[in-house]
Task: structure prediction
Amino acid sequence: MSTSRRLAAAAAIVVLWGGLAACGPSHNGQNKGADQAAPPAAAHQIPAGAGPQDSYHAAAQPAAGSCHYRYSADKQPLPDLTCTPGATSPAVTQATLNQTICKQGGYTSGIRPPASVTGKEKSDNAKSYGYTGPMADAEYDHLISLQLGGDPNDPRNLWVEPPSPGHVSGKGPNNPKDSVETHLHTAICKGQTTLAAAQQAIATDWTTAEAKLGLSGGAPATADPDDDAN
Result:
């Protein structure tokens, strides 16, 4: 074989080897094109709602069947971030914490919509998410709770949250998200995290919010007075 042919053959082998290396297993033994677990939800822009109102009316909900639950690795329910990205209250800012959510004597009881409003919203939102279980076992939940400065009645901040794993049918909601919200509220009022950081963490994925904020030893599980379980 002539020298020129030997060089051409060698070059072809190098090109072929490079292509196989690019398509072959990565350093961890998985093909780059192999299916991977869905990545965690990225931080997203949280809209602002109208804030507390003197009176509330039932807000229109997303179209039936247009919203889809997500689930964490341990099967905890998460909302559809297109339908339910969360919404903040403009009345609650870092500068107004002591006059709002950290106020002595409480704040949320005076801004919560009545059950006559949230009951209809809950029924309509269940259709949005395709929830067909017992309504008494699901919580009509503020994604960013009132005690974290969430908007009281913006439909972007409310979703029918189905029961968590281990739930016993007919026993009402079992919602570990409530204790996360209480822990974050305490951290905000103690200056351990900012309002905006806590709101972003809970809206993105409540199951990882404490870890993202560097908080440990969460508060005991308690019912969240901000949310209606009707």
